[in-house]
Automatic annotation (TrEMBL), chain B:
Molecular function per GO: damaged DNA binding
Domain UmuC: 1-93
UniProt-listed InterPro entries: DNA/RNA_pol_sf, DNA_pol_Y-fam_little_finger, SulA_CellDiv_inhibitor, UmuC
Keyword DNA damage: yes
Superkingdom per UniProt: Bacteria
EC numbers, comma separated: 2.7.7.7
Keywords: DNA damage
Record protein name field: DNA-directed DNA polymerase
DNA polymerase Y-family little finger domain span: 182-275
Gene Ontology BP, a term: DNA repair
Lineage: Bacteria, Pseudomonadati, Pseudomonadota, Alphaproteobacteria, Rhodobacterales
Entry coiled-coil feature ranges: none
């Protein structure tokens, strides 16, 4: 076990999104992942949600300090949505752009968003439907919330599927939805099995 | 005259309540029109105008002709007005309200001598006291020594008398015109190129912004009217996320609108108006550092996005004082609101996303041990609650007509942590098969009172 831990090279911060790039997150827990990233990006935040999506961020449930920095754009239609994302990525003062494209992101759209993020120096995070991402993305995260064994932990399974500039990985973390730090839980697979405490 | 007396004389009298605001507006516009006769025109009370026509009458052919011209124009407009010209303001005021006319130079005491003392702008009590001692008209007062008069009737009377007779000066104080934030430009030859229009716009914006800066105002909406040679009018209007008067930043927002303009055979006139303006104190430029530049850049982004998708879709979340989840925050237009810090009091845990209630079907038990939501099957692992939230009785919300709600935080075996509620006061849906109801009842879909409960999913926790 000791040997195992030493051999495994854990990067300083595996969840830091590469700046000036556009990333993708999918899965049911993608909004929690987006909020986790929002806490870690100081500065104005923009969340772009198409008008027809019923889910809205609830102010009282957001992590501390996110609510007053958050701007919500609700464009109508896919063209306006993509235009909004590109324009916001191009704007220098925004630190993180979270967007929920409703359809499939084409390679052209993905590439344009990458160029816009580079021009503006902002980071983008697209919350996509399962498999609706673009190949131009920098990283793609598969996010799921996981049932936790005890009442005081809220487990998330964040699985890095695709990474252009590094290795992929899979983490089981305990993030309570408030702080900027996460507690890394031991690897998936070891903790996934129910403990043998049940009578 | 009292209304009852007037009705007694004329039973068919039609009456209408006085609209003071509109009367004042008409008087203000009449004042603006009257500036064609004199540079200094002021409103005089609620029903009069006072113009200082020194050095003007010869332009109209003399005082009598000026007065005739004024009367004729007012008559043509359907206004009945009494006019008078006199050496002093007080005399003109008195004469206009008692017949009108012209008092020749140096004839002031004779010209207004026959008028009653009430014409002197004195209060009712003073006028009555004067008439009691037999001083009925101005001529009776004019030759009296001022000191005993002031001792007996007060300084006010002496002041008004001296002002009317020209022994004390009283200038016409014309209030300044409200500044008009519009500029225009006509061109000798029509233009059609986008770059030409933008160049013209830049010149107009420079002038408009200088005008705004001089009065410490800033624009919130700017409207550009382009007149084509075929008399067509094209309007481009933009909104600004923050009141501003920076020509370069405003010009950038016009680029898209001007791009869509059909110039036809050419544009030969441009007109630029700031339709909505706000007060904005001069700002220190430079030295503010990057914080101000960041703020400017962010408001530029909000302007450009708002001009495309609508300013009501560029929103900000503001805290509200309500326990009802849907009303615990406001979605306010970002350009008309400031961010408010959220007070993080230690309350119950709240979900990160909220949506309109969606029914959770096939729910059994309280809290449900298993349910279906969005075509997914969930089994409850852990439930926290209930948290009872009662509707606000002072506010009739259709969504809350079903009475109070018991909220549960349900951690599911499948992973998602959901916010469910049940409405104990509302009758549940029928579940005929489970209840063993007769087939006829099942067909008619009757509600089964108190048998089942309605469970809804309204939010998702982190």
């Amino acid at each position: 076990m000791q040997l195992d831990l030493r051999q495994r090279v854990i990067p300083a911060d595996p969840f830091a999104l590469h700046p000036r790039r556009v990333h993708e997150a999918e899965g049911l827990g993608r909004r929690a992942f987006a909020l986790f990233q929002a806490v870690r990006h100081p500065g104005p935040l923009v969340w772009i949600v198409p008008n027809h999506i019923p889910e809205l961020p609830m102010l009282r449930g957001l992590p501390r300090g996110v609510g007053e920095r958050l701007h919500l754009f609700r464009p109508n239609g896919e063209t306006d949505l993509l235009w909004c994302i590109e324009e916001t990525l191009r704007a220098a003062p925004v630190s993180l752009v979270i967007a929920e494209p409703s359809g499939h992101l084409s390679l052209t759209a993905g590439r344009r968003l990458q160029l816009a993020a580079e021009a503006g120096g902002t980071t983008g995070l697209m919350l996509i439907r399962e498999g609706a991402g673009s190949n131009a993305t920098e990283t793609r995260w598969q996010c799921q919330s996981v049932a936790s064994p005890s009442a005081d932990s809220t487990l998330h399974h964040w699985n890095l599927n695709k990474n252009k500039k590094g290795t992929i990985g899979s983490w089981m973390v305990n993030w309570n939805g408030a702080s900027a730090a996460v507690h890394m839980v031991s690897e998936a697979g070891q903790r996934h099995k129910p403990e043998d405490t049940a009578p | 005259m009292a209304l009852a007396d007037a009705r007694a004389i004329c039973p068919d009298l039609a009456t209408r309540a006085a609209d003071l605001a509109r009367e004042a507006a008409v008087l203000a516009s009449l004042r603006r029109w009257a500036s064609r006769y004199a540079p200094m025109v002021a409103t005089d009370g609620v029903d009069g105008l006072m113009a200082d026509i020194s050095g003007v009458p010869h332009l109209f052919g003399g005082e009598a002709d000026l007065r005739g011209d004024l009367q004729a124009r007012l008559d043509r407009a359907g206004l009945h007005a009494a006019t008078a010209i006199a050496e002093t303001r007080g005399a003109a005021h008195a004469l206009a309200r008692h017949g009108g006319g012209i008092v020749a130079d140096g004839q002031l005491a004779v010209g207004i001598g026959h008028l009653p003392v009430t014409a002197l702008r004195v209060d009712h009590a003073t006028a009555e006291a004067l008439s009691r001692v037999g001083l009925a008209c101005i001529a009776d007062l004019a030759h009296l020594p001022r000191a005993p008069l002031a001792r007996r009737f007060g300084q006010g009377l002496v002041l008004r008398l001296d002002q009317a007779l020209g022994q004390r000066d009283e200038p016409v104080v014309a209030e300044p015109d409200a500044p008009h934030f519009g500029v225009r430009m006509t061109l000798p030859d029509p233009i059609g190129l986008q770059s030409d229009v933008m160049a013209g716009l830049a010149r107009l914006l420079d002038r408009l912004c200088a005008k705004l800066a001089a009065t410490h105002m800033a624009a919130r909406r700017v409207r550009l009217e382009l007149r084509r040679v075929d008399k067509g009018l094209v309007v481009v209007e933009i909104g600004l996320a923050r009141a501003m008067r920076d020509p370069i930043r405003i010009a950038a927002l016009f680029a898209k609108g001007v791009d869509e303009v059909d110039s036809g055979y050419g544009i030969d006139a441009l007109r630029l108006t700031a339709t909505v303006v706000e007060a904005l104190a001069p700002e220190q430029i430079g030295g503010g550092g990057s914080a101000i530049r960041h703020e400017d850049a962010l408001s530029d982004l909000l302007s450009s996005v708002g001009n495309r998708i609508g300013f009501d879709r560029v929103l900000r979340l503001l805290p509200a004082t309500s326990l009802i989840p849907e009303r615990s925050f406001l979605l306010a237009p970002a350009v008309y609101s400031e961010p408010e810090p959220m007070s993080h009091s230690s309350g119950s845990l709240r979900p990160i996303t909220l949506f309109p209630p969606e029914p959770a079907t096939v729910a059994s038990g309280t809290p449900p041990t298993s349910f279906r939501w969005r075509r997914m099957r969930f089994t409850t692992l852990r439930a926290t609650g209930p948290e009872r939230i009662t509707p606000e009785w002072w506010f009739d919300d259709p969504a809350w007509r079903s009475g109070l709600r018991d909220y549960w935080r349900i951690e599911t075996q499948e992973g998602p942590r959901l916010w469910l509620f049940v409405t104990p006061q509302a009758p549940g849906w029928s579940n005929p098969e489970a209840q063993g109801w007769p087939a006829s009842a099942r067909a008619q879909n009757w509600p089964a009172p108190g048998s089942a409960q309605n469970w809804y999913v309204q939010g998702e926790f982190a």
